[in-house]
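Late entry, protoporphyrin IX containing FE complex.
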Amino acid sequence: MVNFPYQFILPVLGISDPEQIKCLDPLRFDPHIQRLHELNRAGRADEIGALLHYLLSGLKDTGSLSQEECVAVMRDLGIFMGILKKMGFEPVQQHPALLPVLCSIANRTAMPPRDTLLHYTLWNPDNERTRSYTGAGDELDLIRSVKMSYPDLLLAIIMLDKLYISSFVGEEFKSTCDVIRESISSMIDGIVHAKRNVSPAFFANELRFYYDPIIVDRPEPYMGPGAVEMPMFLFDHILWNCDLEDEQYNAFKESFLPYNFEFVRKTYMYYKGKPSVWSSVIKNLSEFPSVETLKAAEAVLDFSYILKGFRKPHKRLADQSYAYKQDFNRATGSGGYSVDILDKIMDLQTSRILVLQEAIKSARKQLT
Ligand code: HEM
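Prediction complete; structure with ligand written out below:
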């Protein structure tokens, strides 16, 4: 992980300090985590419902909670909803008392009326206070694998944004590229951690069902807290595809916007239709061919290879996990997409990086 003072940078982006949220327990769920796991293992939906109502009855009016407390309540209700959904219930239909609480928190936090990946990972406490559906080591390690990459992914996005407005030459440009390389590499660390510690069979036949979409306040479901919600799509957007016209891929990226921070939504819209970093580098090389612009292009290409380093093993992990699935009708992930979308993204990325590689190759020839 990059050693970076996130506690200072996140408030500037309008993001509450995750460490503060992790400490909060306004639903008073802490003493009941183990019990919930036991009830889940035993399949006792009625008792899970009773525990949920007991906790809701002790909750203060959401209007009197701070924004951080609202986030913590949503995080904990999400665990109940995921378990009930896996048991075959629509949680809000089965427990209508949830609806006003979910909607009020959604209003207060400008997030959907359900939990997201942020609640499940970045805002989830560590150690014995970690909220999980099962308490199983594999699940805790999946949570850890996202926790170890998420903050650095945010840093990579911030630095890429900084890179975009720079002059695309010089030492500062190069050192920004180095920080991006280091921070985006944490995505690979996350995949390596998941590969080593999350059994594909356990994921395929147990975990993934907790991340299923649920119905809340409209006929269309809200998707569950899967890693697909990570703003990796925003990093890609700025780096190589905000100027790409591909209906399916653009719909894919935009489907995750509501589940992300406001800063992610705003940054996405700001870049939409603008030339990407790769396009700008290529234009720079052709308009101002020089050793300086070539060095800058090489520095961008260098950290861009990390994308492949993340996506190839991630695809293998997804393939392995889905190969174990026992229900042949269910081939989609938490985002509602099948593993094929991963090939599609890799194909688009490869075709675009080839253009950058070609531009660098011909600039090298021209300048030597
Ligand atoms: C057992 C572990 C995992 C499996 C089986 C898995 C599976 C999948 C699948 C099937 C998708 C496609 C879309 C969808 O979900 O609807 C996806 C997307 C995605 N996953 Fe995972 N995943 C796993 C772990 C992780 C981890 C640990 C990370 C990050 C640290 C991650 C990050 C992503 C991202 C960013 C996407 C969006 C597509 C992309 O940018 O390439 N996944 N995953």
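Residues 291-323 form the longest helix (33 residues). Will revisit in the morning.
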